Amino acid sequence: MTVTVIVGTQWGDEGKGKITDILASDMDMVVRYQGGNNAGHTVVIGDKTFKLHLIPSGIFYDKVLCVIGNGVVIDPSVILDEIGSLQNKGYTAASLRISSQAHVIFPYHKDLDAAQEEKREAGRIGTTCRGIGPCYIDKYNRRGIRISDLYDKKIFREKLEWNINEKSFLLNQFYGMEVKYDIDSLFEQFLTYADAIKKYVVSDSSYLINEYIATKKRILMEGAQGMMLDVDHGTYPFVTSSNPISGGACTGAGIAPNSIDEILGVVKAYVTRVGGGPFPTEIEGGIGEMLRERGHEYGATTGRPRRCGWFDGVVMRHAAQINGLTSLVVTKLDVLDSFESIKVCTAYRYKGKEIKGFPSDIYKLNECEPVYEEILGWREDLSKIKKYEELPLNAKRYLEKLSELAAAPISMVSVGAERTQIIRL
């Protein structure tokens, strides 16, 4: 094993942070390849809980080089806060590297994010208003400011002035906001940020990563969010602005597809979603609330309560197909401990016809009803189990069903929030 990609197979929040943290102990490098601080990975180490938004989850191991790739958009104030928080809890960020090609989030991106969400006519998508989408828009519109630009005052000033003039006009004239940016103040503020992160910046992170690949070092690629929030293959337009899928690791880190050896799909034993958009297996009322409370289903970034539902096998098939999963990692199995029976969606029913493929049209998806199969619960505490053989029979049957739907073997099962609460197969 040289390069392993870890992806979320649902709408994010599958527990990738914990799994990345566990796997990182055997790695030489961990790479974050897309997204911004609109996502969060929670890692529990003893009595300490860490919420990471930009820094890769391998940061807790001194020997692991942690790289933020070119596909990530960075709010410098956020990453500096994260570094400070780690240091306050006894961890150094000395092993952190930041791609000079990563794009920078500015205050006008956040204002645009909020203004667009407020004005959206077809329903709000539930953006975190962290400026992620507008920053990616600037990137693809070739108007973005990259980390490297911050170290050339002339170029940075020119790009900043142009962007402020454009965004001010758009916000004031179209969105009706009264905003005025102090160019001198922003310029100096971001120069200060640039100076603070300079020791972490590398000119070509892709070259660094490929050097590790060439020497057979062990590399873990982690994305943010999940497959169903992918801008191309998720429930568009209720998606993020980048590609969390395994293919996104190639563009977001600058590696060749044939350098990837394994693709691990992290899947929660049930399903959650934050924000708007279709959610076929969503449970309204008591059971949904029970899942939320037992699973502590509140956003790591925003604190928003997550919508909860039964496991969706149609989504699982879609994720397995798009990502090319080599194995499955099931998290939060222990949350289902108290249920007498558990439902698993195996297909959708659309206008009286059963379908097993995931509809690409969300208007069609909104009319789909889940077709469920019920599996008896185990009603036992799984939190202290260390071996697969020790699991209750019905828990094994449930896992076998998920594996069947994914057409991939299960390699790990999480039965609690801590590092030690893991079963390796």
From TrEMBL:
Cellular component annotations (GO), alphabetically ordered: cytoplasm
Predominant location: cytoplasm
Pfam families in alphabetical order: Adenylsucc_synt
GO terms under biological process: 'de novo' AMP biosynthetic process; IMP metabolic process
Free-text remark on how the cofactor is bound: Binds 1 Mg(2+) ion per subunit.
Binding site for IMP: 13-16, 38-41, 128, 142, 225, 240, 304
Positions annotated as active site in the UniProt record: 13 (proton acceptor), 41 (proton donor), 139
EC class (word): ligase
Record: residues binding substrate: 300-306
Annotated residues for binding of GTP: 12-18, 40-42, 306, 332-334, 414-416
Family annotation (SMART domains): Adenylsucc_synt
Location(s), subcellular: Cytoplasm
Enzymatic reactions: IMP + L-aspartate + GTP = N(6)-(1,2-dicarboxyethyl)-AMP + GDP + phosphate + 2 H(+)
Cofactor names: Mg(2+)
Pathway: Purine metabolism; AMP biosynthesis via de novo pathway; AMP from IMP: step 1/2
Binding residue positions for Mg(2+): 13, 40
GO MF term list: adenylosuccinate synthase activity; GTP binding; magnesium ion binding
Alphabetic keyword roster: Cytoplasm, GTP-binding, Ligase, Magnesium, Metal-binding, Nucleotide-binding, Purine biosynthesis
EC number(s) per entry: 6.3.4.4
Function statement: Plays an important role in the de novo pathway of purine nucleotide biosynthesis. Catalyzes the first committed step in the biosynthesis of AMP from IMP.
Subunit-structure text: Homodimer.
Family classification: Belongs to the adenylosuccinate synthetase family.
UniProt-recorded name of the protein: Adenylosuccinate synthetase
Protein's organism: candidate division WOR-1 bacterium RIFOXYB2_FULL_36_35
Taxonomy of the source species: Bacteria, Bacillati, Saganbacteria
